[in-house]
Amino acid sequence: MAREKKFSTEDIYQEAHSLLMAVGYDKFSFGLLANSLSVSRAAIYKYYTNKDELIYDYMISEMEKMVDDLEKLDWLTDYPAQFQQLFALIFEYGDVHQISFMIPNKQIADDEKMKEKKQRSQLLHKRFFQQIQSFIQTGQTNGYIKKDIPKSIIIELIFHSVTIPDRVGLSQSERAYYLQEIICQGIFEK
């Protein structure tokens, strides 16, 4: 009997990420993942019972990193520099945002493990959103951001900017720079 290739949860996450970005949520399967890892599907089932469980664990892992990175930003610099750091962070995790938009808002399994995963995911989203909302509020209070624009619109604009397809071949940092410029300065010459 052949020995099963060794792989880690991180290997699963990296391959799942690549496949989700390449084929999307609907076409993602344990069969594709197993082929990509050069292992049997049974080997993956030792870790996860279904793709939703895997994707939730992956997303929770990435969101924990993102929240941690957000909390480590240098908030001592001036507000425009802080905004630049925040925007760069959001673009750094742009694929994660795109994957989260792929996942259908369907009812997940009623088992306790999936309920806990969903609650953890919601808690992390809420924590991240509250920090961003507080940041935008500070910008409005201190006169950097127009007060008449609802915070929720600003946040949605920032987060959805990472899902704009790159059809011209810009690097991630170039895209982030130009989109930030458009959000902060508009497209009209002054």
UniProtKB/TrEMBL annotation:
Domain of life: Bacteria
InterPro entries for the chain: Homeodomain-like_sf, HTH-type_TetR-like_transc_reg, HTH_TetR
DNA-binding region: 29-48
Keywords tagged on the record: DNA-binding
Domain HTH tetR-type: 6-66
Coiled-coil region(s): none
Database matches in Gene3D superfamilies: Tetracycline Repressor, domain 2
PANTHER family: HTH-TYPE TRANSCRIPTIONAL REPRESSOR SCO4008 (PTHR30328:SF54), TRANSCRIPTIONAL REPRESSOR (PTHR30328)
Entry protein name: TetR/AcrR family transcriptional regulator
Source species of the chain: Carnobacterium antarcticum
Organism ancestry: Bacteria, Bacillati, Bacillota, Bacilli, Lactobacillales
